[in-house]
Structures are given as C-alpha cells and as structure tokens.
C-alpha cells in the first residue's frame, strides 16, 4: 500500500456489492483492533486518478446479517486508509405514501430502535469515557451538499427517480421486519423511512470524526398500509437491482466533485467533524489503561497516541 491517502469511503448496502462502473485498482483487508471489516475493501480510481474505498456492508455475498455487521472494524478500517467522508447507501422501507419504492431520500434524523446488542461505541469496554455529540446524526454540510448533487445526478440519469430530503429514518434491530402495529407507531413518531443498518454506523463515524451521510433507496412500503401485503424480502428484491444501478450512476457522477470539495479551500468547513471529539472525551477520572489508549489511537491518534495526559 502506498502512502497515498484515500479520502472518500463508500459503504454499499443490500443489492450494492460493488461499484464496477469505477476503475478497479486492488483490494485491501486491514486488521483493526476490532477485527476485519465486513469484506475486503475495494480501492477504485475516479477519472482524475483520485482513489476511493468501497466496502460492502453485508459482505460481497451478503452473508452478514444486520445485527452482526462489524461496524467498528468497518469504520476503523476506512479511517486507517485516510478516509474523511463516508457516503453510505441503504435499502430502506418507506413509511410515507409519497416516498414510493424506487425513490431516493437523504435523511437528516434517526430514531434508534436497535436493541443494544450491537457494539455501538469505540469506547465500549475501555475505561475511557466519551459522549459524542449526536443531535444532528448526519453531517449537516455534507448532507446539504449532497442534496443538490444527488438531485442533479438523478435528473441526468433521466429515469425519473424522485429525491426526498430532510427525512427521519428509523433503525430497527431485525432481522425480522416490523409488525403492522410497529410500522404505524413509527409513522406516528415522525419516521419516514426504516432500515436495519444506519446505526451504529453513523454513531461510530461520528466518534471517529468522519463526515457521514446516507443515501436511502426505498424498496417497499413496510407494513403500515392497511390494504397491502406486509413487506417481504421478495418484495424488497423487486426494486433492489434498479436502485443499485441508480446508486452506481449517482456515485460515479458525484464522487469526483466530492473529492474536490474535501480537498479544496473550504475543506475544513466541509469536514466539520474533525476536532469534534476533543470536547466529548471526559477528563480523566481514572488512570487510562495504556492498552485502551493504544486501541483508541487507531481511530483518534490526535488524542491517544501520545503520552497519557
Ligand atoms: C434485504 S431487506 C433488509 C436489509 O436491507 C437493508 O440493508 P442495507 O441497509 O445494508 O441496505 C436493511 O437495513 C436490512 O439490513
Ligand atoms: N421495510 C423494511 N424494514 C427494515 N429494513 C428494510 N430495508 C428495506 N426495507 C426495509
């Protein structure tokens, strides 16, 4: 591996297991203190020659269920390559009539309905305490930038895919889908979309000071519509391929500009998470364990690689 930093990470979800419309360079499989990522990471090059890193969240053969995705290894592995911004894709259910299957959405809020069985913090099982800011779970500036670029890319594609913005996504545990009662409850709570994987991914990206945004691709109406069948995996598969094709088109269209945005003169305002953990790590109340510090230095070298402070 050369020292060249790869600044953009793309995480593909159900149906999006590769970005084969970009030029393949190689695969890498970093071992992190939290183990290996879901699958070897593909390094691909953009027309300008800049490289991006692509990771299939459930493994290339979709063999990892949502509760078992190694979120910490995935985020840590991407950060170890130099990644600063993660563009994640996810197949989601729609909780709103207007968000028809085949639509794309960029959420700005999350409701957590995972069940505490997924390791959700790099600080878990260490004696270092940190409380990351998470009021805005996605990176505001990245999201705003993305809304405009994705809208233009969808227009360019010309298949009539609609884009919805400022939506709230519910992240449930799974692997079973929701009951009709739950689906209706999520609507009453203000949920617009539902998936099983935006958490803890978004939380871990925040702890690692990475910018993170999600492109949610609707595959079904979940189970809230009284006259319709409740969602099944079969239903989801019907839209998965078309959504994946459009996702690849969107990625290829916007990644070059994203590379420019995060290397250009306004990069520091764009990458607003850098430095954010400084005020989240609690001043030491107990002696920090050197092994914990070494582990945490893998994702936050600025705070943990030096002598204990
Ligand atoms: C195949 S339906 C349920 C499955 O699809 C979504 O995966 P991803 O977010 O990785 O695209 C959802 O979150 C569930 O994991
Ligand atoms: N209805 C649904 N519920 C949870 N995750 C999903 N992914 C795609 N559709 C979904």
TrEMBL record:
Predominant cellular place of this UniProt entry's protein: cytoplasm
Class in the EC hierarchy, top level: transferase
Residues given in the record as phosphate binding sites: 14, 57-58, 90-91, 197
An MF annotation (GO) of this entry: S-methyl-5-thioadenosine phosphorylase activity
E.C. number(s) listed in UniProt: 2.4.2.28
Residues annotated as site: Important for substrate specificity: 178, 233
Cell compartments where the protein resides: Cytoplasm; Nucleus
Classification via CDD domains: MTAP_SsMTAPII_like_MTIP
Keyword Coiled coil attached: no
Coiled-coil portions: none
Annotated positions binding substrate: 196, 220-222
Entry GO terms, CC: cytosol; nucleus
Gene Ontology BP terms: L-methionine salvage from methylthioadenosine; purine ribonucleoside salvage
Residues in Nucleoside phosphorylase domain copies: 8-252
Annotated keywords: Cytoplasm, Glycosyltransferase, Nucleus, Purine salvage, Transferase
Pathway stated in the Swiss-Prot or TrEMBL entry: Amino-acid biosynthesis; L-methionine biosynthesis via salvage pathway; S-methyl-5-thio-alpha-D-ribose 1-phosphate from S-methyl-5'-thioadenosine (phosphorylase route): step 1/1
Pfam name, any one: PNP_UDP_1
Entry-linked HAMAP family: MTAP
Family: Belongs to the PNP/MTAP phosphorylase family. MTAP subfamily.
Subunit record text: Homotrimer.
Entry protein name: S-methyl-5'-thioadenosine phosphorylase
Biological source species: Agrocybe pediades
């Amino acid at each position: 591996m050369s020292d060249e930093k790869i600044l953009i990470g793309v995480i593909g979800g159900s149906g999006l297991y590769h970005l084969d419309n970009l030029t393949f360079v190689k695969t890498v499989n970093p071992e992190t203190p939290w183990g290996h990522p879901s699958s070897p990471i593909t390094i691909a090059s953009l027309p300008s020659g800049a490289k991006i890193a692509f990771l299939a969240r459930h493994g290339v053969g979709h063999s990892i269920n949502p509760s078992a995705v190694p979120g910490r290894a995935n985020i840590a592995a991407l950060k170890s390559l130099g990644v600063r911004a993660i563009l994640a894709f996810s197949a989601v259910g729609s909780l709103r009539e207007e968000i028809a299957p085949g639509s794309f959405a960029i959420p700005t809020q999350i409701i957590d309905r995972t069940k505490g069985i997924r390791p959700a913090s790099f600080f878990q099982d260490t004696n270092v305490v940190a409380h990351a800011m998470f009021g805005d779970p996605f990176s505001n500036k990245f999201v705003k930038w993305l809304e405009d670029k994705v809208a233009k890319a969808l227009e360019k594609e010309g298949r009539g895919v609609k884009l919805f913005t400022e939506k709230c996504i519910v992240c449930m545990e799974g692997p079973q889908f929701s009951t009709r009662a739950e689906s209706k409850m999520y609507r009453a709570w203000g949920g617009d979309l539902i998936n099983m994987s935006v958490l803890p991914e978004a939380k871990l990206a925040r702890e690692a000071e990475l910018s993170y945004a999600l492109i949610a691709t609707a595959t079904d109406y979940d189970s809230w519509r009284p006259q319709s069948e409740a969602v099944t995996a079969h239903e989801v598969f019907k839209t998965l391929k078309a959504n994946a094709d459009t996702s690849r088109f969107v990625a290829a269209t916007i990644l070059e500009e994203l590379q420019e945005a995060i290397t250009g003169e306004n990069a520091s305002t764009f990458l607003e998470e850098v430095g954010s953990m400084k005020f989240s790590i609690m001043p030491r109340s107990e002696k920090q364990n050197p092994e914990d510090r070494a582990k945490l230095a893998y994702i936050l070298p600025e705070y943990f690689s030096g002598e204990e402070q």
